[in-house]
């Protein structure tokens, strides 16, 4: 009797050893896979009852944002995709085989027909998870993964530029099966995978999270689940026939513009051009005003190309400054042309006296004829550094000293100083008989106060009014940019 017991114990030990060997033997697993895949059809949905809905769970990991095209409003996003579902034809009893999971090439098993609905390219419409073998567990749970490069369409809003935030969705759905067959469901008890994970750096030593790419900062991600049907995309369970709806997942990332040198490269040059533009209204000399306007246009053209490339379509402030500068150039040139061509007594009839408006508003001091000048002859004018008592001052005996004469021609003012010669000294009582000018134009003595032309005064007031209108326009533009 004891011999029989010993024989049974030996057989049990040998059976366990054989099972352990078969479980760890590659040839045994290959034979098991071959047996498991007999009669399997990867084109048929893996359910034994047609009314069973296949629940597919999809996960995303964002690895890199390569390019954000503001003009086309698209983004190129790279990452990894995982999908999980239950295959009822790939189940086995673990106790009989001692095999808990197997790896099967993804192309040999059924996969959901996932498609990228907001793809900006036709060749990235279908999503195939064939990069790595799929892992199949004994209970029929399938895990398949792959890498992706999604070129998706976005809808940008540049209202708050350059402090704007943009969103780019990634819309995925099954384009073959409706809700009655496949449902892209949310994961259960896996809150960390409720939205796409963002991991753009895999440095095991430096565990800092990388978030800045291509002038943008990846702030966050999101995930939405809805059902697309006749009434649009509804988040709740739809009412009606399931065949009328499709399960849809919307992943997405939120981007924030990153311009660390915005003040230096954009604000400073733009402020300089604004100041030059406003300063020109206070310059009465036409040649100097035209020179400043041309300098302003050159500066705008120099930094404008880089600015236009950074700013979105429909730029406001830069276009506004360029338009006003061109208008200013036309105003200065045309008013100077009219002053030279129109008669001296000509006055523009506005229906009211434009020169009286500042007096009524109490801002007459801002409309004084004297403006800024860069002419050295005007900056160091003899009227300022020669005392008035020296010009034509009387001598001790009461006779006038005519060694300095102030004369004016049609286009310029000259001071003629009669200096005595060393060889032939002249008496200080002799008068200057002739004052010769090289262009032989008649000269007259300038009176102490010469009245300006009425037309020049009108043009002067028009320029000052344009200055205040431009300041008001800039204030409104800044308010619109900051508030809205």
From TrEMBL:
Listed Gene3D superfamilies: Neurotransmitter-gated ion-channel ligand-binding domain
Residues annotated as signal peptide: 1-22
Taxonomic lineage of the native organism: Eukaryota, Metazoa, Ecdysozoa, Nematoda, Chromadorea
Keyword Transport set for record: yes
Sequence similarity: Belongs to the ligand-gated ion channel (TC 1.A.9) family. Acetylcholine receptor (TC 1.A.9.1) subfamily.
Bilayer-crossing regions: 261-282, 289-308, 314-334, 465-483
BP GO annotations: endocytosis
UniProt KW Protease keyword: no
GO cellular component: cytoplasmic vesicle membrane
GO molecular function ontology, one term from the record: transmembrane signaling receptor activity
Chief place where the protein resides: membrane
Domain Neurotransmitter-gated ion-channel ligand-binding: 30-186
Keywords linked to the UniProt accession: Cytoplasmic vesicle, Endocytosis, Glycoprotein, Ion channel, Ion transport, Ligand-gated ion channel, Membrane, Receptor, Signal, Transmembrane, Transmembrane helix, Transport
Subcellular location field: Cytoplasmic vesicle membrane
The name this protein goes by in its record: Acetylcholine receptor-like protein cup-4
Pfam family, one: Neur_chan_LBD
Organism: Caenorhabditis brenneri (Nematode worm)
């Amino acid at each position: 009797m004891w011999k029989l017991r010993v024989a049974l114990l030996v057989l049990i030990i040998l059976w366990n050893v054989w099972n352990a060997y078969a479980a760890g033997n590659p040839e045994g697993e290959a034979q098991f896979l071959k047996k498991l895949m007999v009669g399997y059809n990867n084109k048929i949905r893996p359910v034994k009852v047609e009314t069973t809905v296949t629940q597919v769970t999809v996960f995303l990991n964002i690895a890199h944002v390569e390019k954000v095209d503001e003009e086309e409003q698209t983004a190129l996003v790279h990452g990894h995709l995982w999908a999980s579902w239950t295959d009822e034809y790939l189940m086995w009893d673990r106790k009989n085989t001692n095999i808990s999971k197997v790896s099967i090439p993804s192309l040999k098993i059924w996969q959901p027909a996932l498609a990228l609905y907001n793809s900006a390219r036709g060749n990235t419409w279908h999503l195939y998870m064939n990069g790595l073998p799929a892992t199949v567990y004994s209970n029929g749970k399938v895990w398949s993964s792959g890498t992706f490069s999604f070129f998706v369409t976005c809808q940008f809003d540049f209202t708050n530029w350059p402090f704007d935030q943009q969103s780019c969705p990634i819309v995925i759905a099954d384009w073959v099966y409706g809700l009655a067959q496949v449902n892209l469901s949310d994961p259960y008890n896996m809150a960390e995978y409720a939205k796409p994970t963002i991991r753009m750096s895999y440095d095991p030593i430096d565990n800092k999270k990388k978030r800045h790419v291509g002038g943008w900062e990846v702030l966050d991600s999101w995930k939405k689940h809805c059902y697309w049907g006749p009434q649009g995309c509804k988040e709740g369970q739809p009412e009606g026939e399931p065949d009328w709806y499709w399960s849809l997942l919307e992943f997405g990332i939120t981007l924030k513009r990153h311009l660390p040198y915005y003040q230096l490269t954009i604000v400073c040059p733009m402020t300089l051009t604004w100041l030059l533009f406003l300063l020109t209204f206070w310059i009465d000399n036409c040649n100097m005003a035209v020179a400043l306007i041309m300098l302003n246009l050159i500066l705008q053209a120099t930094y404008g190309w880089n600015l236009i490339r950074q700013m979105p379509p429909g730029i406001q402030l830069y276009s506004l400054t360029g338009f006003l500068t061109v208008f200013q150039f036309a105003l200065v040139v045309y008013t100077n042309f009219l002053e030279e061509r129109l008669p001296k007594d000509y006055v523009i009839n506005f229906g009211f006296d434009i020169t009286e408006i500042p007096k009524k508003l109490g801002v007459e001091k801002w409309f004084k004829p004297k403006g800024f000048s860069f002419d050295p002859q005007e900056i160091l004018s003899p009227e300022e550094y020669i005392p008035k008592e020296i010009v034509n001052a009387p001598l001790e005996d009461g006779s006038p000293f005519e060694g300095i004469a102030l004369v004016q021609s049609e286009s310029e003012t000259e001071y003629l100083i009669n200096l005595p010669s060393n060889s032939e000294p002249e008496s200080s009582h002799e008068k200057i008989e002739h004052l010769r000018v090289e262009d032989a134009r008649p000269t007259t003595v300038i009176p102490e106060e010469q009245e300006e032309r009425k037309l020049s005064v009108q043009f002067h007031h028009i320029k000052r009014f344009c200055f205040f209108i431009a300041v008001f326009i800039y204030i409104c533009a800044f308010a619109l940019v900051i508030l809205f």
